[in-house]
Amino acid sequence: MPRVCVAGYLTEFYSMKNIVLTGFMGTGKTAVGRELARLLNMHLVDVDTDIEKSEKMSINEIFEQFGEPGFRELETEMIKKLSERNNIVISTGGGAVVRQENVDVLKKNGVIVCLTAKPETIVRRTGNSNDRPLLQVEDPLEKIKELLNFRKPFYEKADIMIDTEGKTPLHIAEEIIEKVKEKDGKNKG
């Protein structure tokens, strides 16, 4: 079993399952995923980045050409492909968990961790980006609140929920490791 040194003490990390990060855009999935992968000596894969590489176009271009439904189909196919791998950190797009099929595939070989943040924090974190097609609207804060409200029941199906407010990516990654260890302990006991 791999050993991981976290916050100055040695812990055993029992899960060889994938760790799947989900949550709304701007909650820190990519930054936390990097820290988590580094701490656990796992590979980080980003669903959106892999879609862009596979399709040889940006997420914005995919949305423009195929619309959100076309993007969601590509997303589901990529999630199926990535979920076949072991011992990786998977960062999903914010809407991936709206499809039950995605959740089922991700849970088969992974533990789903949902990162959360307040709408005001999300708008601050995503405000300078043109790479968020769903936020290219007149009132991004209102759109964030609307999407969060719609997605909340889907996010709450995650195995673990982590509030990212006021925490560094390293602190969040350490918290995830502890929660996954606790979950593994309960499943083995």
What would you note in describing this structure?
The protein is an alpha/beta fold. It has one domain: Rossmann fold. Helices cover 52% and strands 17% of the residues. The strands form 2 sheets. It has a 5-stranded parallel β-sheet with strand order 4-5-3-6-7, with helices on both faces. The protein has a two-stranded antiparallel ribbon with strand order 1-2. Strand 1 and strand 2 form a beta hairpin. About 5% of the residues have low confidence.
List keywords for this structure.
single chain, about 190 residues, alpha/beta, five-stranded parallel sheet, two-stranded antiparallel ribbon, globular
In a few lines, what is going on in this structure?
The protein has 189 residues and is of the alpha/beta class.
CATH class: Alpha Beta
Average pLDDT level: 87
Radius of gyration, rounded? 16 Å
Following the backbone from N to C, one meets helices and strands in this order, namely EEEHEHHEHEHHEH
Strand content: 15-25%
As for the number of domains, it is 1
Q: Terminal Cα separation, in Å?
A: 18 Å
What is the oligomeric state here? single chain
Question: What is the number of E strands?
Answer: 7
